[in-house]
Amino acid sequence: MVKSDASVTLRVSEIFHSLQGESTRVGLPTVFIRLTGCPLRCTWCDTTYAFSGGEHLSIGAIMERLATMACPTVCVTGGEPLAQPNCLPFLSALCDAGYSVSLETSGALDIGAVDTRVARIVDLKAPDSGESERNRWENIELLRPSDEIKFVLASRADYEWAVAASRQRRLFTRCPVLFSPVWDALSPAQLAAWIIEDRLPVRFQLQMHKLLWGNERSR
Which CATH superfamily is domain 9-213 in? Predict the structure, then answer.
């Protein structure tokens, strides 16, 4: 059991109840806890407001707020959640409390210490993101079937890079692999056509929250 005392704090950008817009949990009512800060600067980032600011909250205070939302599914996201060391005990505290927990991480930081009960959604960065050199490939060997790999793609070059990386590193046999187009950069229909043509064993996904509410925060 992880202590939830006031000495263990996190810098939180926002906490909100919405529908999961991505991953295999798409459409599921979820409480999102967005932590502040990120060491990456992807060209297509849509959460730049989470780079700074935020509110310092204890794990106990966050848990109290979660309890009022009466939702069993929680997604810890960012920014880059693992940039805050206290994210690790927080994830364990969520699992201890009985929540179904997913973590959205860039894949640039070590995922090895994340509680094994957490579903890790690892967002590998393609070249057009400007951050592909930051991918921590050592994480691949740590993936379990309950985890997921996500590629956000802005071009044909990104797509070909993702396909090559998936095949070379045998990603398709490790866990679900998701291909997603960058909003307003790559045509969803075009990406879908490439996937079908190449008979890829991937899950095509759109950001459902943007389809529902536009290019705004997911609520």
Answer: Aldolase class I (3.20.20.70)
- Please answer whether residues 31 and 16 qualify as being in contact, where contact means their C-beta atoms are separated by less than 8 angstroms: yes
User: So where are the chain's domains?
Assistant: 9-213
**Cβ(80)–Cβ(105) under 8 Å?**
yes
User: What is the C-alpha separation between 31 and 33, in angstroms, rounded?
Assistant: 7
Backbone angles phi, psi at 178, to 5 degrees: -120, 135
pLDDT tens profile 124-180 = 999 999 999 999 999 999 999 999 999 999 999 999 999 999 999 999 999 999 999
| Strands ordered across the beta sheet of 177-181 | 55-58, 9-19, 29-35, 73-77, 100-105, 119-124, 148-153, 177-181, 203-204
Q: Are 76 and 90 in contact (CB under 8 A)?
A: yes
SS3 145: coil
The mean of the pLDDT values for the chain is 94
**Alpha-carbon torsion angle 213, 21, 29, 118, nearest 10:** -150
